[in-house]
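Deviation from plan, reported transparently: adenosine monophosphate complex.
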Amino acid sequence: MSLRFYNTLHRQLEDFTPLHAPEVGLYTCGPTVYWSAHIGNFRSYVFEDVLQRVLEMEGFLVKRVMNITDVGELADNGEDKMLLGAKREGKTVQEVAQMYLDRFLRDAERLNIKIPKPPFLCKATEHIFQQIELIQVLEQRGFTYQTDDGVYFDTAKFSAYGSFSGQKLEDKEAGARVAINDQKRNATDFALWKFAPLDAERQLWESPWGTGFPGWHVECSAMARLYLGQPFDIHCGGVDHIPVHHENEIAQSEAAYGVPLANYWLHNEFVLVDDKKMSKSLGNVYTIDDLAARGFDPLAYRYFCLNAQYRSKINFTWQALEGAAQGLKHVQAVARTSTRGTHTDQDVYEKFCQALEDDLNTPRALAVMWDFLKSDVSSDVKGATLLKMDEVLGLGLDAIVGRLIEAPAELRQLAQERQVAREAKDFARADALRKEIEQRGWTVLDGSDGAWTLVAS
Ligand code: AMP
Ligand code: ZN
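Because the crystal trials were delayed, the predicted structure below was used instead.
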């Protein structure tokens, strides 16, 4: 089977054909570094990481770009997010950006997410020139106008505006989240450049239109074109980016250069918490630190994300995370008892790949892995196949396969007592003994004919 994705651009599943195989250009909208990224954000980055790994599994060379938004993005109430962060922390905007970039990179590493290295991890503030250049092209082509507070993109002049998100201009006007600026021609028009008086708190730049800073959407269009060319292959982000950020990126890039920005647009669905939207006012916005503080391995969250296909909503509860943590522990325990063989089980690996080729169906790929974990193949083949699978899953099995340590005698004694209880069908006692073993940091794996293995959790 060939690789296929759901392409938001045409709202259908499509076979993937890159422009310049074996290279694939991939642009993934990155974090705004004014606060810690939360677990919802990290679902996006886990999904994009799996996408990159699946492309690599298929033999493509992935050229991936991720931007760091450190200027220009406004909160729903119109306040500048970087300034909000600076006020909250009592630091300069640059200090805040560095602090949260470092935190983002640390959390991504804990989740085994591959993040591109600079220059492909690129900051908006380091690409002001390219953003000004794009606005100049738009100006020359008649897509811009000026108001007292900035230079705007006139969405009515771009006839395809709204078609990406399937909304008509009039509907969008009605639903536009930022209050209409008196001088704006259409509610959906967005700032390309904002004027700002010199002040010590802000980072500002000179431009042909006056001192100020770029609007948020410009950075992605400008940096994607610089590093990947236009058009490039795949552009990703969360579903909330479809109606505004990505609609605007497409409008300005296509209006400026007359060719599409990207051929495939992939969007992940949201993480809900207790079936509600994550929000500061509900106090249900969790970070990777919050999970770790409750004793969870961050990789349990990665595993939790993989349990759902990226286009379905997932509901985060502590209980569901606990279930994922147990599942991950079991996978790790089996990995420890296997050895680093060289022969993979080709049939199983093929099924696993087919699931992922089908619009990254990670739950189906995990189901293939679970069937395989229970199968009776040699520990060599088990280890080799699990390691191959983990190139995509990223569950850290590389450090685990073949690392079996012998359990202390008293633990082995407990495991043997549990086996005796099981044979006598005293399941309550067998269960209690298993729990005791687990509390001491070990997992019992049952084999055939009453055999058992103890594995450090
Ligand atoms: P932002 O920093 O707001 O641009 O968000 C970074 C990424 O996280 C974007 O791709 C968003 O679409 C995504 N995102 C934000 N909130 C959630 C959520 N609750 N669940 C899944 N993805 C989210
Ligand atoms: Zn973007």
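Residues 318-337 form the longest helix (20 residues). We consider this an acceptable substitute for the interim report.
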